[in-house]
Structures are given as structure tokens and as C-alpha cells.
Specification:
This is Peptide methionine sulfoxide reductase MsrB. By secondary structure, the protein is α+β, with helices and mostly antiparallel strands. The chain is 12% helix and 30% strand. The protein contains 2 helices and 9 strands. The strands form 2 sheets. It has a 6-stranded antiparallel beta sheet with strand order 3-4-8-7-6-5. Strands 2-1-9 form a 3-stranded antiparallel beta sheet, with no helix packed on it.
Length: 134
Amino acid sequence: MRHAKIEKTDAEWRSQLDADQFHVTREKGTERAFTGQYWDCDADGTYHCICCDAPLFRSEAKFDSGCGWPSFHTAHNEKLIDEHVDRSFGMSRTEVTCHACGAHLGHVFPDGPAPTGQRYCINSASLKLEKDES
């Protein structure tokens, strides 16, 4: 099931997000490698969109790619992730956004591990982890 589309003004997003979260999710920014709170996190749980709380990735799909950003081989629900061609900075990449609110999450590359061969390279600033109850 897809979440309903969420639309807010920049002022509304700014009141909800901190400066880094706004820059990454609403302005298609990127946090510096090895600086985000989740790049080396190994807690069990579900990673949700920081903007709209859509459940995007599960910890079981997270792996250490060595790139300095949280990396996942599979989305929790493919219908909650949209992919777009990104030709910024003289490159051609596949941008990943939240289907529900359009938040920029990061990029996906075809160099990940089994079972998908995908590497969703995601900014920590676009995520919040809901840890599993022990």
C-alpha cells in the first residue's frame, strides 16, 4: 500500500526538520561521508523517512559497504521508494526519494551484495531508526 502524497511548504518543512535534515531531504543535499548517525549503526529496527515516517528500510538489509553512508541491499517496501535519473555534477546516477513526501534519501547503485545486487546509499539525515523492542 502506498502512503498518500504529503505536500508542505518550505516553511512547514523547516519548522519540522533541523537544518541538515532540510538541506538533505528538501534541497537534495548530501551529508559528508562517515559523519551521519547511522552509517555504522548496527541496531535492529526499521529506518523511517525523517519527513513523513514512511518505513523505508529494515536493519536486516543494512550492510557495511565502506562508503561512509548507511547502505541497504533491499527497500522495506519497494512501493515506498521512487527512483529518478540524476544527472547533477556531471554524473548519471539513480536518485532515491520517498514516494509519500518526495524527500531526497540518497542514491542506488548496482554494486551491492546478494540477494539484489543493489546498494541503496542513504543519508542518515533523511532517516530515523525505530529500534525493535527486545
